[in-house]
Amino acid sequence: MSDEHEIKITCYDDLQPAPVTMGKSLVFKTGSWRTMKPKIDLEKCKKCGFCWKFCPDMSIYEVDEYPVIDYDYCKGCGICANECPFDAITMLEEDLE
Amino acid sequence: MKHTIPQEEYMERGHMACLGCGGAHAMRYLLKGLGEKTIIALPACCWAVIPGVYPYSCMDIPLQYVAFEVTGAAISGIEAALKAKGKKDGTTVVGWAGDGGTADIGIQALSGAVERGHDVKYVCYDNEAYMNTGIQRSSATPRGAWTTTTPVGSTKAWKQTPKKNIVEIMVAHEIPYTCTASVAYPEDIIRKAVKMKEIEGPCYMQILAPCPTGWKYPPEKTIEIARLATETCIFPIYEVTDGKYKINKRIRDDKKKNIIDYFRTQGRFRKLDETTIQQIQSSVDAEWELLKKKEKCFGEEI
Ligand SMILES: Cc1ncc(C[n+]2csc(CCOP(=O)(O)OP(=O)(O)O)c2C)c(N)n1
Ligand code: SF4
Ligand code: SF4
Ligand code: SF4
Ligand SMILES: [Mg+2]
Q1: In angstroms, rounded to a whole number, what is the distance separating the alpha carbons of residues B72 and B68?
Q2: Where residue A55 sits, what CATH number does that domain have?
Q3: Which of A37, A44, B27, B50 is the most buried (most CB within 10 A)?
Q4: Which domain holds residue A69?
């Protein structure tokens, strides 16, 4: 076997596994799964934070105290709209060009 | 914006859970309570897929994949190794498995781990079936539910046996802390996670984590349905600390909803007949009364 094809296994005396570079799941833009798109009406929003709290995809963040949706990752589940006590979020059909 | 739960996230966007997955909520909230010095071992289940494809992961903490049967053994080993190396201090070792991996396949290893008294926290996210392999029934599937192995047709009808009460099985092990929780109550999950972290010894938590894919409901209903499960008392929220029972979500008799309100929200219960619904309602009522008695007899103030 030539040197190039040799697999190097690193072993340490305290038995740590060989170091691997892990990447973050941020490379997966799950927003592409979406068929329905949440839209926040800031006029109606009372800044209660429920939408942020109940988003299973961590796709709501805060700007100037108001919630903002991260459409790169939001899958369009609609939980934020369902849980908003002030009906400030509407689900609209995604523009599927 | 108001924040009633900590803002730190230990889970990233871009994970692979279905839209509206209650299992994603469960992990998000648990980690907010446990914090970054946490190691998780997890077996085959939806959560083995959710973090993403190697070498990418949505988790900001170490994750160890283990075989289906051995979550309890794996966390015992991790805890023992950390202790032997003098590195246990402040690190929380967690086993995280589905209801199938807990109530059926991993129950022996779990029982062994807590009986030996390891300082481990075992968390079951309960979606009431084997979801990752296509919705087969587990022993934690409730009576009356459709699954692909309890099909509803002319000769067969839904799951006939009741949901296995794993929580009471864990209480019977006389461990320091056992509790139920639900994704409808994030503050409660976080408080319980912090409590488990502070206790030295084995703890068990079971989080109700509705699954739109397997329970057959639209994804926006996850939190609403989880809340209904507690308001109808089919999934009560309580904790048992050193043998003392405490109901954390008290449902007043005049506020208690009928089980039909819960069943109606989900396709898996759609074909249930009136007689069976009444039978289930009676057993839910009886279980709830029993729980209240346990709280009274073995509660904080006797
Ligand atoms: C020993 C063994 N048997 C069966 C399987 C196949 N399998 C993988 S995930 C899974 C279902 C897990 O169900 P549960 O623990 O409830 O987690 P969920 O997928 O519902 O989140 C099964 C049967 C396996 N991986 N290993
Ligand atoms: S849940 Fe509704 S009112 Fe509350 S912060 Fe979100 S959009 Fe605003
Ligand atoms: S639709 Fe779902 S994923 Fe998108 S922001 Fe709302 S809760 Fe989050
Ligand atoms: S099948 Fe259910 S538990 Fe599994 S990822 Fe999808 S919603 Fe979550
Ligand atoms: Mg399951």
Answers
A1: 10
A2: 3.30.70.20
A3: B27
A4: 29-96
**Ligand 1 shell residues, CB under 6 Å:** B 23, 44-46, 68, 97-101, 127, 129-133, 138
Q: Are B15 and B197 contacting, i.e. CB atoms less than 8 angstroms apart? A: no
Q: Name the domain count of chain A.
A: 1
Third-level CATH fold of B22-297: Rossmann fold (3.40.50)
* pLDDT of A85 over the 60 cut: yes
- Do A56 and B2 count as a contact with CB atoms less than 8 A apart? no
Neighbours of B56 (CB within 10 A): 18
Is residue A88 domain-resident? yes
What pLDDT was estimated at residue B2? 97
In a domain, A43, yes or no: yes
**What pLDDT, in 10s, does the model give residues A23-54?**
889 999 999 999 999 999 999 999 999 999 99
| The token pair that represents B273 in the structure block | 């007949």
Q: In what order do the strands lie in the sheet with B203-208?
A: B63-65, B38-42, B92-98, B120-126, B203-208, B177-182, B238-241, B244-247
pLDDT recorded at residue B54: 82
**Rounded CA separation B242/B220 (Å):** 38
Residue numbers in B near A29 (CB within 8 A): 14
DSSP state of B209: -
Asked if B189 reaches chain A (Cβ–Cβ under 8 Å), the answer is: no
Q: Which residues of B touch A72 (CB under 8 A)?
A: 13
What number of residues does chain A have? 97
Does ligand 3 come within 6 angstroms of the Cβ of A84? no
The average confidence (pLDDT) of chain A is 85
Tokens linked to A65: 């105290």
Let me know: does B136 contact B99? Beta carbons within 8 Å: no
- Residues paired with A36 in a beta bridge: A93
Please list, in sequence order, all residues whose beta carbon lies within 8 angstroms of the beta carbon of residue B274, skipping any fewer than 6 positions away: none
Token reading at A39? 């839209």
CA distance A74 to A55: 9
Tens digit of pLDDT for each residue in A52-75? 999 999 999 999 999 999 999 999
Cβ A73–B13 below 8 Å, yes or no?
Answer: yes
The pLDDT score that the predictor gives to residue A2 is: 39
